[in-house]
Amino acid sequence: MLRIRRYLKPYMLLFVASVILLFAQANFDLALPDYLSRIVNTGIQQAGVQDPVPSAMRVQTMERITLFMSPEDATAVRDSYTLVQPYSPEAQQYVDTYPLLNEEPIYVLNDISREQLDEITTPIAQALVVVSAIEQVMANPEQAAQMDNSAFDLSRIPPGTDLFAVIRMLPEAQRQQIGAAMNERFAALGPSMVDQMAIVQVQAEYEALGVNMARLQNSYILRVGAIMLLITLLSAAASISVSYLSAKIASGVGRDLRSDIFRKVESFSSAEFDKFPTASLITRSTNDITQLQMVTMFMVRLVFYAPIMGVGGIIRAVSKGSSMWWTIAVAVIVLIGMVAVIVSIAMPKFRIVQKLIDRLNLVARENLSGMMVIRAFNMQSFEEERFDKANVDLTANTLFIARIMAIMMPMMMFILNVLSVIIIWVGAHQVAEANMQVGDMMAFLQYAMQIVFSFLMLSMLFIILPRASVSADRIADVLETDLVIKDPVAPVALNGSFNGQVEFRNVSFRYPGADADVLHNISFVARPGETTAFIGSTGSGKSTVVNLIPRFYDVTDGAILMDGVDIREVTQHDLRDKIGYVPQKGILFSGTIESNLRYADAGASEEELATAVTTAQAAEFVFSNPDGLTAEISQGGSNVSGGQRQRLSIARALVKRAPIYIFDDTFSALDFKTDAALRRALHQTTNDSTILVVTQRVSTVKNAEQIIVLDEGRVVGKGTHDELMETCETYQEIALSQLSMEELSS
């Protein structure tokens, strides 16, 4: 993956935006369980009362709670409240909320800072709990014996006695002793438990003030629910945005990779094509890039989101239930172990998937392109077996990976469900022992699910990453291929008075990886206005010679010169711009006849196209068609015959009006009559160009100004037809095998 990381650079801004959105989404998602906890704890269990500090209280309550505070705390509490009298101007804004204000004065909490509120929270909470306990004793005297009477023996007080009045009359030292005993008990309970007990007393105080508790509860639940809904919408918006950006990044990376691979392959010489078969290049340009697009989308979506969710979930879960952290730790360890085992098993299979796809594409391509040959030799059953083996190998490998994935998901869900049961079991005991609230247990459970799912998402990434890594390496292998044929750093231009003279000067050539040369010390000069023909037995090196001119391969030794300039000192574009090339196999592209002809010169006029068609002896079948030049050509020219395809290939080269023409065994698909007519027409229309013709027909080269006879990669004869008939035994053998002496001498 690192080998193609540069393709992410153009999308770094989108990537950063995605990370920011993912961070926001993760925080939104992590906030939801906390709000759920608030609804359960505060909205349902505490009837909407959030703080142990009441927003208002009766005068009686103020007097009672300050009895159990230090003088400093009592002063701070009194300063935080304002006494509002009935029917006073200030009472108008409170009377609807606290109806008791119509009958007696009440204390209303001032608008104080959070720091001031925190200072009075603990003293008020503790005092409210003590007041509640004493009020229960006053209402139910038999409970006095059950209370801690180490500081003040309540059981000795006669029933019906106002205990608060008694306590008020106690000496300061004894009240301090009561306060110390209270603090000791509160330390054992813990601040959370004290706050919960105090909130129950606050509810009772609000009921005494005439507060509509149902409305207070509904208001709180609706408010928190609205916040949850807003957070959910924001999370959804962030998720949609990230999905869009990740898809845009992945598609852009895929597009750039495909473009660069295509451009790279366009610059390949035949040596590189020998290294990367066509079927493999197709797989790398399609399936491999699809794998990379998918993993890029997953990485943008999950690589940051899952860790944020995991780490954030752990931090928040521990804050909700610190005593249950071990449940998540065990689940995470089991998950990591399971993912490690699965990845180690699946990794070797991922490495061979793409090679098996290459093999399947290769077999399918060979079968489709060679269908006629397969049918002619009745080899359908053999090819079916060959395809079936490639198909079965790929299927078996894919099924193995699918089974691993199928096992992994139930295992993950099993771990998830077991974790849920353990959390509920342990949490229920924590709630029963008053160490945790129900809402906190529910939030802890949700955080645990988020943590496990984050690891689940990362495990999915680990599963697809190995295959994508293999695909990335395969793509990088193509992109990083060092080209055998390169343009020179300081190229020489072929512009100006270019004649088109081609000279081979002691040229030898060896195919890449071969042990021996296939061409040996080839030398000749092909001049403008002349036809230079190459003839020889099969495998003598004729096509190899002409393929060196456009630099499909580079010479091993010696040099090829054009107008005295070594072709290796010229850019490939300038070099090939001077050549009209017709390969052995006529290749047409899907489109129309006109679009194929304009492949050579997009700006060619209709008259030039017609002239090229006529010269190539294709006018009869082109213009007899009602569509003429606009007639459709199927892929590869499959809707025209081999001879028609070859003539259209020749016409395309003629449209270029090049100073050099190469006909590589071009006339083999033509009958003798068409061949002769075509050569006459070529002589008239290309009389200023250098013509190089590869052929095995003596009749095609009889009138050539120069005939070069090749045998096993060596020049064994050079001259005109008449000269070679006298001096070259190899040429004589070829000529006599095709024509009679009368035909040769005519």
Question: Could you characterize what this model shows?
Answer:
By secondary structure, the protein is α/β, with parallel strands linked by helices. The chain folds into 3 domains: 46-211, no CATH class; 261-479, Up-down Bundle (ABC transporter transmembrane region fold); 500-578 and 688-746, Rossmann fold (3-Layer(aba) Sandwich). The protein is 61% helix and 10% strand. The protein contains 26 helices and 15 strands. The strands form 4 sheets. It has a 6-stranded mixed sheet. The longest helix is centred in the first third of the chain and has 54 residues, at 213-266. The chain is rod-shaped and about 150 Å long. The relative contact order is 0.08.
User: Beta-sheet strand percentage?
Assistant: 5-15%
Assign the CATH superfamily of the largest domain.
ABC transporter type 1, transmembrane domain
CATH class of the largest domain: Mainly Alpha
CATH 2nd-level architecture of the largest domain: Up-down Bundle
Describe the secondary structure blueprint for this structure:
Elements: H1 12-45, E1 56-58, H2 59-66, H3 71-79, E2 81-84, E3 106-109, H4 114-139, H5 163-169, H6 172-189, H7 191-209, H8 213-266, H9 270-275, H10 278-302, H11 305-320, H12 325-369, H13 371-376, H14 380-432, H15 438-479, E4 502-509, E5 519-526, E6 531-536, H16 542-547, E7 557-562, E8 565-566, H17 572-577, E9 579-582, E10 591-592, H18 593-597, H19 606-615, H20 619-623, E11 632-633, H21 642-655, E12 660-664, H22 672-685, E13 690-694, H23 698-701, E14 706-711, E15 714-719, H24 721-727, H25 729-738, H26 741-745
Parallel strand pairs: 6-13, 6-14, 9-12, 12-13
Antiparallel strand pairs: 1-3, 2-3, 4-5, 4-7, 7-8, 10-11, 14-15
Helix pairs in contact: 1-8, 1-11, 1-15, 2-4, 3-4, 4-7, 8-10, 10-12, 10-15, 11-15, 12-14, 12-15, 14-15, 19-21, 24-25
